[in-house]
Design brief:
Blueprint: H1 2-12, E1 16-17, E2 20-21, H2 25-38, H3 43-67, H4 74-106, H5 112-135, H6 137-169
Antiparallel strand pairs: 1-2
Helix pairs in contact: 1-2, 1-6, 2-3, 3-4, 4-5, 5-6
Length: 170
């Protein structure tokens, strides 16, 4: 699960120089993919690997597009953004469900329910921040900050689940 945690950092943390992400999300999705491969106890992780690989490929194409200076505006640009966010939501949802499955199978507390609740805040706040920012930039910024907090909480809870899972193995 350590690779999945590292993958989350790449997926969610964006450090850009001249518009180029130095921590590209496709690397994160690949790490998540490899991490899911290592946790053979979870059928959910095994069943999510194709989705994660698709997310890595989509993200790599988007990163390459930016690297080459190709910018897509308008409806198609919005559609690409929605696809990217949707893939991110699906992968992180499957990660939360995989932790819950491991928790049920092992009988060990991994914080799966808390992770699922933290995940739920992410799509709600993401949509709210986009909608609200259309009407009020200041209020949209507050929702964006709340989305950031929800992401940090999700990452921290996944880290705790990983460490709890590691303790089980030792």
């Amino acid at each position: 699960m350590g690779k999945m945690f590292a993958g989350l950092i790449y997926v969610f943390l964006h450090i850009k120089i001249n518009g180029i992400d130095l921590l590209p999300a496709f690397v994160g999705y690949y790490l998540i993919y490899k991490g899911m491969e290592e946790v053979s106890e979870s059928g959910i992780f095994a069943g999510s690997r194709t989705l994660t690989l698709v997310s890595a490929i989509f993200s790599a194409v988007m990163w390459l597009k930016t690297l080459l200076g190709i910018y897509i505006d308008g409806l198609f640009g919005i559609l690409l953004t929605v696809v990217g966010v949707s893939l991110q939501l699906l992968v992180t949802y499957r990660m939360a469900k995989g932790v819950q499955e491991l928790e049920e199978q092992s009988g060990q507390l991994l914080g799966g329910a808390e992770l699922a609740k933290a995940w739920l805040a992410f799509p709600i706040l993401t949509v709210a921040s986009y909608v609200v920012s259309c009407f009020s930039g200041e209020l949209g910024a507050i929702f964006l900050l709340a989305t950031f907090v929800a992401i940090v909480v999700y990452i921290v809870l996944f880290y705790r689940a990983w460490k709890a899972w590691e303790r089980r193995l030792t």
